[in-house]
Amino acid sequence: MKYIIGIAIGALVGYFVFYRLIGCSGGTCPITSNPYTSIIYGSVLGALLSAQF
């Protein structure tokens, strides 16, 4: 259950932080130029962080 919560929180952070706040205006950043990539990256980070606790 904690992995699902971690993935969901990571996906939200990935979208709002990586894509909305940090996103590159020129579109040259591979992680932040596509919202789906940012969501997947955030989900992976959330799963890894939830595994630590």
Describe this structure in words.
This protein has 53 residues and is an all-alpha fold. The chain has one domain (2-52). The protein contains two helices and no strands. The protein has helices spanning 2-21, 35-52. The longest helix has 20 residues, at 2-21. It starts with a helix and ends with a helix.
Number of strands: 0
Overall spatial form: elongated
Beta-strand content: under 5%
Report the average pLDDT across residues.
75
Low-confidence stretches: none
Roughly how much helix do the residues carry, as a percent range? over 70%
Keywords for this structure?
2 helices; elongated; mainly alpha; 53 residues; 0% strand; 72% helix
Overview in brief:
The model has no long low-confidence stretch (mean pLDDT 75).
Secondary-structure map with pairings?
Layout: H1 2-21, H2 35-52
Helix pairs in contact: 1-2
